[in-house]
Design brief:
Radius of gyration: 14 Å
Shape: globular
Distance between the termini: 13 Å
Order of helices and strands: EEEEEEHEEEE
Helix content: under 10%
Mean pLDDT: 95
Largest sheet: 6 strands, mixed
Number of helices: 1
CATH architecture: Sandwich
Number of strands: 10
Number of domains: 1
């Protein structure tokens, strides 16, 4: 399993959000650099964002969820075109970053 995983749930539908494009970036100085990119599966999960044996360096990262295209594929307007979650990796442990979305709100937390 990837060191970084996520699970996106559409609270408007009460179902997993599949087809959400996700980009992971690392902050170096004041700039962001893409590390990985993926798309959620039918269960709304992305478990292979990184290679299984790949370890990120300690630091600040941002995971971006393209919710505009997800909701647009269902002809639903959304207030948030993208959700960006900035977090810090302090150890080499596994980090699970779930996202709950609706067209006009979202919530996230550090999962396990």
């Amino acid at each position: 399993m990837s060191q970084i995983t996520t699970h996106v749930l559409d609270t408007n539908k009460g179902k997993p959000a599949w087809g959400v494009i996700i980009v992971l970036q690392e902050q170096v100085g004041h700039e962001w650099f893409e590390v990985a990119k993926g798309i959620t599966n039918k269960e709304g999960r992305l478990t292979n964002l990184l290679q299984e044996d790949e370890q990120l360096t300690l630091g600040i990262y941002k995971i971006s969820f393209d919710v505009r295209h997800y909701f647009g594929s269902y002809d639903i307007e959304t207030f948030y075109p993208s959700v960006e979650v900035i977090f810090e990796i302090k150890t080499i442990e596994h980090y699970h970053i779930p996202l709950l979305i609706s067209p006009f709100g979202y919530s996230t937390y550090k999962g396990c």
